[in-house]
Amino acid sequence: MRQAILVGRQKFEFRDVPVPAPGPKDVLVRVRASGICASELHDWEEGPKTPYAPGHEVAGDVVAVGPEVRLFKPGDRVTGLFHAGFADYACIGEDRVAPIPEAIPTESAYGEPLACLLSAARRTKVDLGDRVAVVGLGFMGLMMMQ
Questions:
Q1: Side-chain half-sphere exposure of 22, counting CA atoms within 13 A
Q2: CB-based burial of residue 123 (10 Å sphere; 0-12 exposed, 13-18 middle, 19+ buried)?
Q3: Residues 6+ apart with CB under 8 A from 69
Q4: Helix, strand, coil proportions of the chain in percent (round to 5)?
Q5: What is the dihedral of CA 111, 86, 91, 16, to 10 degrees?
Q6: N vs C: which end of the chain shows fewer Cβ within 10 Å?
Q7: CA torsion, points 69, 62, 84, 57, in degrees to nearest 10?
Q8: 118: part of which helix (H) or strand (E)?
Q9: Using one digit for the tens of pLDDT, what is the confidence trace for 45-94?
Q10: Model pTM greater than 0.90?
């Protein structure tokens, strides 16, 4: 399979690497879409300290599962928090992915930003009627307001 490796300032190399094998609790996903997170832009603009495989906002189709996976099967569409997602395939634990609802196109189903929002909401002690300030009304700010 092909894997994008960030090797320098605004420079990727595409390398042929083996398709990852799912462990007992892992799902192997054929990547259909992979978003670019703002956290990855610094390395893109300035160059990484060491070459690495970016891409943690992935959506795709399950193609194989480990023997202990109970929530997913081949053919399911999933999204989640991956590693090395700028590739043909990515492998991750079943506890780090979620199903994509049928009404949502795969290329629009990035679960990682939603996971960040849920994490922030759970850590923030806001009750009904509290006043809050959301600074920045980009994608994440608008979603947090909802």
A1: 24
A2: exposed
A3: 22, 24, 25, 26, 27, 94
A4: 25, 30, 45
A5: 170
A6: C
A7: -100
A8: helix 111-123
A9: 999 999 999 998 899 999 999 999 999 999 999 999 898 999 999 999 99
A10: no
